[in-house]
Amino acid sequence: MSDAQVEVSEIHWLMDMFQTVDVGLVVLNCDYRIQVWNGFMESHSGLTPRQVREHYLFDLFPEVDEDWLRRKCDPVLLLKNRAFTIWEQRPYIFKFRNYRPITGSAEYMYQNSTIFPLTNTRGEVTHLCLIIYDVTDVAVSRLELESMNHRLHQLSKTDFLTQLHNRGSWENTLVQEFKRIQRHQHVSSLLMIDIDHFKRVNDDFGHAAGDDVIREIAKLVKKNLRETDIAGRYGGEEFAVLLVDTPEEQAVYFAERLRKSVENLSVHHHDVVIRCTVSIGIAQSGKSLVNHRAWIEQADKALYVSKANGRNQLTLASQLSDKEF
């Protein structure tokens, strides 16, 4: 075989490889007009090399952010350096639909890319080459893992029955709030809420009915909360609510509204209608509190007074005598 035949054969299989390789290959001139467009790009765009040749890239593909891509490419042209883009920074350069069955949850193809200069015989940069990699499988796996980790993190902070903060999560938040109000001399209020005669509900109707009661009251607690307030399930039938930047006078309105809502609540469990009430203790933050535990104790003692005085009522810790503490 002659040298000429060898060269033709080499060019043939190089062109064959160029067209069938499973990455996108795009060559642009310095005016961002398309010069080369391989089979991968044709397959995913639906446009043939003849249809795109000499067309301005940003006219054909308006989803490509021109300012962003030029910022990536200008150093390549000027300094002859390579540039890279990753899907975490920008999901894709070309908005191609994703057709892979394994990564079917992704609507579009996630892409990484490499951008490098092409020079002439004098070493002058005349063109840019973009290599487009389909990394949808990696991106989807990473995003699913992050989503799962986020869900697990949320579950670790959430009470399963009520979907409120669990005790640990709620108390950690209280610690941070306590430090904030001590530092900035703000005022917040803490409510401890207990379902009255809850043991009787469990004894008379069963624990499943008791769970229904707890769930329904938790819904009322959430319904009355502002976005900044934080509610948690403190114990079996006990809830804790932190009313941020709220003095006790305003906390009374929240507590009384909640108390009345529970008093009017009818919980249906099978053929049984269960009525119940709550007792509430309220404690406002103050300089005398040495730590968050002391704050909880004040609200808890006010709750105890509400229960001792007949239940279905609220008590302010500030109104209790030293003897009651």
From TrEMBL:
* Record domain GGDEF: where: 186-319
Keywords recorded for this protein, A-Z: Nucleotidyltransferase, Transferase
Keyword Iron belongs to the record: no
Known EC number = 2.7.7.65
Q: Give me the segments passing through the membrane.
A: none
An example Gene Ontology molecular-function term: diguanylate cyclase activity
Catalysed reaction, written as an equation:
2 GTP = 3',3'-c-di-GMP + 2 diphosphate
A Pfam family this protein belongs to? PAS_4
Q: What PROSITE patterns is this protein classified in?
A: GGDEF (PS50887)
Spell out the InterPro entries in the cross-references. Diguanylate_Cyclase (IPR050469), GGDEF_dom (IPR000160), Nucleotide_cyclase (IPR029787), PAS (IPR000014), PAS-like_dom_sf (IPR035965), PAS_4 (IPR013656), Rev_trsase/Diguanyl_cyclase (IPR043128)
Under SUPFAM superfamilies, the record lists: Nucleotide cyclase, PYP-like sensor domain (PAS domain)
**Protein name (Swiss-Prot/TrEMBL):** diguanylate cyclase
Organism annotation: Alkalimonas collagenimarina
High-level lineage = Bacteria, Pseudomonadati, Pseudomonadota, Gammaproteobacteria, Alkalimonas
